[in-house]
Write a structure and sequence with these properties.
Elements (H helix, E strand, L loop, with lengths): L3 E6 L8 E6 L7 E11 L1 H8 L16 E8 L11 E4 L2 E3 L5 H4 L10 E2 L11 E5 L4 E2 L6 H21 L6 E5 L3 H12 L3 E6 L2 H9 L4 E4 L5 H7 L3 E6 L4 H9 L1 E9 L12 H6 L3 E4 L5 H12 L7 E5 L3 H9 L6 E5 L1
Parallel strand pairs: 10-11, 10-13, 11-12, 13-14, 14-15, 16-17
Antiparallel strand pairs: 1-2, 3-4, 3-8, 3-17, 4-5, 5-9, 6-7
Bound molecules: nicotinamide-adenine-dinucleotide and zinc ion (2 copies).
């Protein structure tokens, strides 16, 4: 337990990350320092490193918001967790706790929020500092390497399925079977829906079938909107693909009264919607951003009950740049989790 730690750092948008030795963080009041065991690679980390979005992250930046590890030290006034607890450090790194959003169950909309691995340093490191109030305890039944992808991919899609309103008689389409999508389809199944999975790669669709998808569509070979319309149209479509085209196809796959849930955040961030059809067909369009601490606790609970399967490949943090490339090319199997 020296004073230094290894971390992967973004210095310039679009340039490779550098593995560096940095001073180990110290916990301030209300904060903890966590010794990271497992750190998931979310596609958001790639967007952050590329500076893809209208709001840019801090630079230099340690990315990563699927960090799981053991609380090593607590700052003054910490009561929420104690040394030795296993916790998850999610995207919602901090919220004010007192605004209208925070007190009404929508802390993920807090205007004073800080985001792990974006506005504050994250978990691509041996140690991470976090607000004790916003880490979430990992139940002992949940393996840390399963817990990491659940910390963003899991909670985000668990919430998106709630937002979709999916019910047992519904047909739910999931566009994009990557880190988020492989879990989205499982939550839609848990909600009782019939699921159609859409991706560009056969291996991803094979995985989707293994995980319970009832139908699959390869969007390179077939128009997904037509294929899903033949099945009666989707009551809800959840889009976690990193491509505006997928959002338009998902819109066209909806039946009357259907709901389009936007989750993926591609760099070129616009979709064209026909006003006339949206109005006459009573279509709903809604954005869904991660989930609250309670959503994450529920996500862990479902996993502890054996109701979800997390598919991941372990990699050393030193391979971060190769791993980014593999995810961008659709070559990674569901999630990559760094062993740090
Ligand atoms: P990923 O790269 O693991 O998965 C994306 C999947 O989409 C891949 O399987 C890819 O093959 C597939 N895909 C790409 N183009 C497609 C198309 N045209 N049609 C169908 N499938 C297509 O990425 P991820 O980590 O699952 O993240 C997905 C997106 O969600 C990213 O943009 C990420 O930033 C965003 N995200 C949003 C939230 C949120 O709260 N809204 C949270 C986490 C991640
Ligand atoms: Zn994420
Ligand atoms: Zn708030």
């Amino acid at each position: 337990m020296g004073k230094w730690m290894k971390a992967a750092v973004v210095h310039e948008f679009g340039k490779p990350l550098r593995i560096e030795e940095l001073p180990k963080p110290e916990p301030g009041p209300g904060e903890v320092v966590v010794r990271i065991e497992a750190s998931g690679l979310c596609h958001t980390d790639i967007h952050a490193a590329h500076g893809d979005w209208p709001i840019k992250p801090k630079l230099p930046l340690i990315p990563g918001h699927e960090g799981v590890g053991i609380v090593e030290s607590c700052g003054a006034g910490v009561t929420e967790v104690k040394e030795g607890d296993r916790v998850a450090i999610p995207w919602l790194g901090y919220a004010c706790g007192v605004c209208e959003y925070c007190v009404s169950g929508w802390e993920t909309l807090c205007e004073s929020q800080q985001n792990t691995g974006y506005t504050i340093d994250g978990c691509y490191a041996e140690y991470a500092r976090a607000s004790a109030r916003y880490v979430v305890k990992v139940p002992k039944e949940v393996d840390p390497f399963d817990a990491a992808p659940l910390t963003c991919a899991g909670v985000t899609t668990y919430k998106a399925v709630k937002v979709s309103g999916a019910r047992p008689s519904d047909l739910v389409a999931i566009f994009g079977i990557g880190g988020l999508g492989h879990l989205a389809l499982q939550y839609a199944k848990i909600a009782g829906a019939t699921v159609v999975a859409v991706d560009l790669f056969d291996e991803k669709l094979e995985l989707a079938r293994e995980l319970g998808a009832d139908y699959t569509v390869n969007a390179r070979e077939e128009n997904p909107a037509e294929a899903i319309t033949k099945l009666g149209g989707a009551d809800a479509a959840i889009v976690v693909a990193v491509s505006p085209k997928a959002f338009e196809q998902a819109y066209q796959a909806l039946r009357r009264g259907g709901r389009l849930v936007l989750v993926g955040l591609p760099a070129e961030g616009f979709v064209r919607l026909p006003i006339f059809e949206t109005v006459l067909r009573g279509i709903q369009v809604v954005g869904s951003i991660v989930g609250t601490r309670i959503d994450l606790a529920e996500t862990f609970e479902l996993h502890a009950l054996g109701r979800t399967r997390v598919v991941y490949e372990k990699r050393p943090l030193e391979m971060v740049n190769e791993c980014f490339e593999a995810v961008e090319q659709g070559k990674a199997k569901a999630r990559i989790v760094f062993q740090v």
